[in-house]
């Protein structure tokens, strides 16, 4: 992609109402544009990152056995009346009436709709276990939307829903999502700590939030330091027996400020391992048994031929929110530092003199070779001054910067910079390309 043809409206300064780093940098880097309070247009650079995050989430859900579908954004109010949540949910729900006076709502979550889909097609325990997920836009009418995509009103979410014959099977489904979330966030370069959480309006008796530690986090958290450094379960785990993974991580203290018990924290955690920090919620999982299947009559015939209400769980990841969380956890004074797996481009090739034919030829050759090797390349072929080009490359956070100028071409060398560390190397173009491959 040539930068001269790309749509990336860079701002020299963030608007004064952008209060946190991720909001400021996303606006400055031309990733989003606010259209209304808590509602954003995703510009090309931001959409590239959003798509990469979405794909990682999708792949890890499928690896854990979940099956993708797509549910609509608008839902019938009658479904929510069946579950008893329509009146209870509160003003965050956007209620709509169509031209035929049918009551609809813009879905903040999908427990009712997915239960309705399930009960319409699944009749036997032989079809279980089943986990259905989708990645869809949601709307919650926040009283005070703020912090950019971290607390918007419209947001992209992955929500999955498990259906099982009994509690024991449902808790195995819960453990699969628990492990899948740890793998998902690790792939994005994040260290997420599962913390026991309040079930809130979703309901149920078992719930965990996944918290990313960041100095600018929205809430205070307390945990055993060893949890932060614990590696993810990985892809070679036994997906049918993850109780050990769950027990290992839940045996150590970890709590948000709402659930914090200072006495327990001191009693259960060695002083050297007590960590108090700020955190950002990026995922939330729930087991709630028959909370929805009972009122909505979602039953299957069990092994004995008798109808039984299925046990359910739901599992959410804030896909759009993750962009903000990653930036909050990974930035410096110059801009964003994207982990390789989610970066909008793998490499930015910087042409220091677009009027020099030899430099342009070298840049074109580098771009062609990198793209042939499967790299996604941004080619800065603009006539901006070198200082401006370097500032833009640092701001947008592309992991590698390959700089080619007239002096280097004459000497047969280029400069390669790793954005995360700032380390620079001067080497031949072939050597640089080999390293990037």
List the helices and strands and how they pair.
Layout: H1 21-28, E1 32-36, E2 39-42, H2 44-63, E3 67-68, E4 74-76, H3 77-83, E5 94-97, E6 103-106, H4 111-121, E7 130-139, E8 154-164, H5 167-187, E9 192-196, E10 206-213, E11 219-224, H6 225-229, H7 243-250, E12 254-256, H8 262-268, E13 274-289, E14 299-301, E15 307-309, E16 311-318, H9 319-329, E17 331-332, E18 335-336, E19 347-351, H10 357-372, E20 377-380, H11 386-396, E21 400-404, H12 406-411, E22 414-418, E23 424-427, H13 429-436
Parallel strand pairs: 3-7, 19-20, 19-21
Antiparallel strand pairs: 1-2, 4-6, 5-6, 7-8, 8-16, 9-10, 10-13, 11-12, 11-13, 13-16, 14-15, 17-18, 21-22, 22-23
Helix pairs in contact: 1-9, 2-5, 2-9
Determine the strand fraction and express it as a percent band.
Answer: 25-35%
Look up the CATH topology of the largest domain.
BirA Bifunctional Protein, domain 2
Structural class: alpha+beta
Please compute the radius of gyration using only Cα atoms. 24 Å
